[in-house]
Each structure stands twice: as structure tokens, then as C-alpha cells.
């Protein structure tokens, strides 16, 4: 099998070099390959890779594998074409640009996952689960509680970080109830994306629109009611299929490990630094996130240095109280290790993101994104075009789609810019692969929350999508 791969690569390369350069139209410093076999092959490779991702539940093939291969094949074909035309640096520069975008996303996600793993190790999610269960909440109440929390946290902490945080709680509360975990994850994805749509800090696309100056900070809040509708409609329908039974009570009280709340405080500081880096310093948010990782490392160093003294004090107190259970627990304490939390990050998800970003970047470099955007905003009604942006973002990714729209800068009213902000933000909820929150949760709840499970509820989510658009068109009619 390994011997056939070089032969296949050589065959593809030979095929590319057989085509005459005259068959491609040059647009500035790049080639238009949208009507060339290379473009068609790239689309076929991308579709095949996504088909394998969609079949993850049946094939038991991790989603990163087909996307990594697809990314390599697409860019290898592009590079071969450009080299054959004497343009040796254009493809390289374009690929490096996509790689930089992924690097920022990778490091952002890595820090968020590290903090979440650290909070889980400090037993914060066990304590939250114990509190929820001891309060007597039913599964249906927990479904609503996690969704509402996701909706109101995401405008501050961004939809991706919020979804990861709430998914960890859901898995602790749901336990072995896979149906509840899966549906609650779907609800959290919808809620987090909806909550992020009415805040400049809630999603990368809203940040892009804000930084471009298309919508002022306070104007985003005109999308609050449509965002609520987008979350409430599918949540109400799905909640009817959630059992009212109460989770099994937790017998023992959960004792938080040392430093748990301080790690939460550091996480909030890290989010604040990420937001400030972007809004005040005009720097990528990842600068604040990586600085926050450094703070967590310093705190881990402090926990390790003071571990013996802390254990000695607690053992003395436990001995005086004749608390054998506490003494046994103290004997199993291990030092806090930040790099152990980094290693536990969901690497399949992170590598899948690489494949998506690089593949979509390749298709954009070929010319397909510009072609689609130009067709939509010159030949279609603007409202229909903005609605289609949301549907397209569910299939591909909202970041490159919004980037293409902002690049064109079509002449639109404030109401239309708010509409495309809404649709790009919440449209990805219709498929699990349509948003960063959905992709991340597929990794965090692997085997439970899958593409197929989410797809079953796509019509209900689409109903909320349409309802939110209608509410925006009615409520904010004066902005059009």
C-alpha cells in the first residue's frame, strides 16, 4: 500500500503538467483555476473527504485523517500548476497565509482546552454536576440550564470556549445517558452560536465585521432578539424529547482540589486578555490566550512548590478529626502538571481544523469563493444572498465565507450587514461541521455527539434559522 502512494502522486503531478498554461486565465498574480480540471479535482477531493467525515459514526475513521490527506492533495495540485507556469512563490505565500490562520486557531484552541482539562482535573465539573443533581434538577431542566448558560456566556467568552466548557459539564451530568448527552450537546452548539451572533466578541466573524467598521459596537445588540429566537425555537422542540427523570443522586460530597477557583479566575483573566488584545491593541486574540497559558504555568509551578506544605497541613487536620477517608484521598494527590493538560487536548479535532482551514483556503485560492460571492451579490437579491451565506457556512466554514463577503464589500444597508452577521453566525449550527463549536464538541464527546446525530435535528435547527431571519427583518425593518 505504501509503495502505491508515490506512484499515485507521480500520476497526479504528470496529469497536471500535461495541461497547457494557456488554458488558464490569469487574474493579477494568481491563476483562475475554477474552470480547469485542477479545480474540479480539488472540489471532488474536498467532497470525498467531507463524506468520510460525515460517515465517522459508521466507519469509525477519525475525522482528521481524510481532511489531512485532502489538504495535502489540493495544495500539491495547486503548487504543481503554479511551478509549471513559472510562478514559484505565489502558491507558497498563499499556503503560508492559510497556515498562519490555522496557527492562531490552533494555539487559541489549545489554551482553551488546556484550561478546561485543568478545571476538570481540579474536579470543578464534578462539583458542578454534584450541585446540579443535588438540587433535584431533571434532565429536561438540565437541558435548558446548560443551553441558557451557553447562550449568555458565549457573547463574553466566545462560542467555541463556551461550548467546550458546557460540554464538559454535560458529560459529567449525563453520565452514561448517551441520548441526553447528544441532544444537550446539539442544544449547546445552537445556543453558543446564537449567543455569539449579537456580540463583537462572540465569534470570529462578528469580530471581522466589527473591525472592518461595517457595524458599530452597540449596533450588534439589535440582533439580540433574533438570536434568542434562533436558540429558543429548536430548544423548545428538542426539549419535548428529553426525559423528565432525575439523574442518580451523588452520594459523596465532591471536594475541590487546591487552586480550583484560582484556575477559573485565571481563565477569565485569559479571556479578558484575548478580547483586550484584539479590541484595544489591534493584535490577534491568541496573544492574550498564550499569555494566559503562561500564567497557568506559573500557577502550576506555585502549586508544585507548595504541595508538600499543603499536604502536611491537611494531613494534620484530617488526623485530628480521625478522617480516614480524607487521609486516603490525600495519599493519592499528585503534583499539578500543565503539560499533562496540554497533552490531553483533543488532537484529532485540532488536526481536523488544520484540514478544514487549509482545504478551504486552497479552494479560495483557486477562485471558487470569490466566484460564489460575486455571483451571489451581483446576480441575486441581497437578502437572499445573505440568507444563502448562512447555509453555505454550514457546509464549509463561516470564516472564509465572511472573509469573501468583506473582501467584496457589497453596497448594503446596516440591516443587511446585520443580517449577514446573523446568518453567518448561526447558520453553521445546522450541521455539526458548520461551526468551530460543533467540530470541537465532536471531539470532546466522541462517539456520542456525531455528525449523524446532529443531522437528525437539522430540520428543527433550520426552523429556528428561518424564524430568526424573519424576526430580524420585521423587528429591525427601519435599518434596511
Description:
The structure is a single chain. This protein is mostly helical and 480 residues long. It has a domain at 102-203 and 252-343. It has 24 helices and two strands. Strands 1-2 form a two-stranded antiparallel sheet. A hairpin with a 2-residue loop joins β1 (25-27) and β2 (30-32). α8 (159-174) packs parallel to α22, α12 packs antiparallel against α13 and α14 (307-320) runs antiparallel to α15. The protein starts with a helix and ends in a 5-residue tail after the last helix. Belongs to the NhaD Na(+)/H(+) (TC 2.A.62) antiporter family. Residues 68-425 form the Citrate transporter-like domain. It comes from Motilimonas pumila.
Write the layout of secondary structure elements.
Elements lengths: L3 H15 L6 E3 L2 E3 L4 H18 L1 H4 L4 H21 L5 H32 L2 H11 L4 H19 L1 H16 L3 H19 L7 H8 L12 H16 L20 H20 L6 H20 L1 H14 L3 H8 L6 H6 L3 H20 L1 H12 L2 H14 L2 H11 L5 H13 L9 H9 L6 H6 L1 H18 L5
Antiparallel strand pairs: 1-2
Helix pairs in contact: 1-4, 2-4, 2-17, 4-5, 4-17, 5-8, 5-12, 5-13, 5-17, 6-8, 7-8, 7-9, 7-11, 8-9, 8-22, 9-11, 10-20, 11-24, 12-13, 14-15, 17-22, 18-20, 19-20, 19-21, 20-21, 21-24
Helices and strands, in order, run as HEEHHHHHHHHHHHHHHHHHHHHHHH
Terminal CA distance reads: 59 Å
Main sheet strand line-up = 1-2
Structure annotation, total helices: 24
Number of strands: 2
Percentage of residues in helical conformation? over 70%
Residue ranges: pLDDT <50 for 5 or more in a row?
1-28
- Counting helices, strands and paired strands, the structural category is mainly alpha
Shape: globular
Mean pLDDT: 80
- Which percent band covers the strand fraction? under 5%
Main sheet?
Answer: 2 strands, antiparallel
- Supply Rg: 24 Å
Amino acid at each position: 500500500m505504501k509503495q502505491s502512494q508515490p506512484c499515485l502522486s507521480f500520476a497526479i503531478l504528470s496529469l497536471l503538467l500535461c495541461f497547457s498554461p494557456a488554458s488558464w486565465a490569469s487574474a493579477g498574480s494568481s491563476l483562475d483555476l475554477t474552470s480547469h480540471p485542477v479545480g474540479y479535482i480539488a472540489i471532488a477531493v474536498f467532497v470525498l473527504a467531507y463524506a468520510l467525515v460525515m460517515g465517522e459514526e459508521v466507519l469509525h475513521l477519525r475525522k482528521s485523517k481524510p481532511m489531512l490527506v485532502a489538504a495535502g492533495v489540493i495544495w500539491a495540485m495547486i503548487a504543481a500548476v503554479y511551478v509549471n507556469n513559472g510562478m514559484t512563490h505565489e502558491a507558497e505565500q498563499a499556503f503560508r497565509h492559510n497556515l498562519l490562520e490555522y496557527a492562531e486557531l490552533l494555539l487559541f484552541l489549545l489554551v482553551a482546552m488546556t484550561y478546561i482539562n485543568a478545571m476538570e482535573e481540579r474536579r470543578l465539573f464534578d462539583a458542578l454536576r454534584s450541585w446540579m443533581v443535588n438540587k433535584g434538577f431533571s434532565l429536561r431542566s438540565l437541558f435548558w440550564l446548560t443551553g441558557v448558560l451557553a447562550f449568555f456566556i458565549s457573547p463574553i467568552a466566545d462560542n467555541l470556549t463556551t461550548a467546550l466548557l458546557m460540554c464538559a459539564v454535560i458529560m459529567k451530568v449525563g453520565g452514561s445517558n448517551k441520548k441526553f448527552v447528544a441532544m444537550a450537546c446539539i442544544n449547546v452548539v445552537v445556543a453558543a452560536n446564537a449567543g455569539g451572533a449579537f456580540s463583537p466578541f462572540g465569534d470570529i466573524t462578528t469580530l471581522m465585521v466589527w473591525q472592518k467598521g461595517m457595524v458599530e459596537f452597540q449596533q450588534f445588540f439589535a440582533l439580540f432578539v433574533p438570536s434568542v429566537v434562533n436558540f429558543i425555537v429548536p430548544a423548545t422542540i428538542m426539549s419535548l424529547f428529553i426525559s423528565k427523570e432525575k439523574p442518580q443522586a451523588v452520594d459523596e460530597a465532591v471536594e475541590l482540589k487546591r487552586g480550583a477557583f484560582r484556575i477559573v479566575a485565571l481563565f477569565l483573566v485569559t479571556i479578558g486578555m484575548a478580547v483586550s488584545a484584539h479590541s484595544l491593541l489591534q493584535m490577534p486574540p491568541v496573544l492574550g490566550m498564550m499569555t494566559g497559558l503562561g500564567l497557568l504555568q506559573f500557577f502550576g509551578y506555585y502549586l508544585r512548590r507548595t504541595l508538600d506544605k499543603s499536604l502536611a497541613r491537611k494531613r494534620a487536620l484530617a488526623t485530628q478529626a480521625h478522617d480516614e477517608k480524607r487521609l486516603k484521598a490525600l495519599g493519592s494527590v499528585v503534583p499539578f502538571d500543565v503539560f499533562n493538560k496540554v497533552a490531553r487536548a483533543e488532537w484529532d479535532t485540532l488536526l481536523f481544523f488544520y484540514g478544514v482551514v487549509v482545504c478551504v483556503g486552497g479552494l479560495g485560492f483557486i477562485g471558487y469563493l470569490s466566484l460564489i460571492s460575486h455571483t451571489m451579490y451581483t446576480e441575486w437579491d441581497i437578502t437572499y444572498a445573505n440568507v444563502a451565506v448562512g447555509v453555505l457556512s454550514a457546509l464549509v466554514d463561516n470564516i472564509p465565507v465572511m472573509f469573501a463577503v468583506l473582501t467584496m464589500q457589497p453596497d448594503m444597508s446596516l440591516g443587511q450587514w446585520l443580517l449577514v452577521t446573523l446568518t453567518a453566525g448561526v447558520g453553521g449550527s445546522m450541521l455539526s461541521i458548520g461551526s468551530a463549536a460543533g467540530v470541537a464538541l465532536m471531539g470532546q464527546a466522541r462517539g456520542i455527539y456525531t455528525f449523524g446525530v446532529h443531522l437528525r435535528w437539522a430540520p428543527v435547527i433550520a426552523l429556528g434559522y428561518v424564524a430568526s431571519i424573519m424576526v430580524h427583518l420585521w423587528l429591525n425593518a427601519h435599518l434596511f
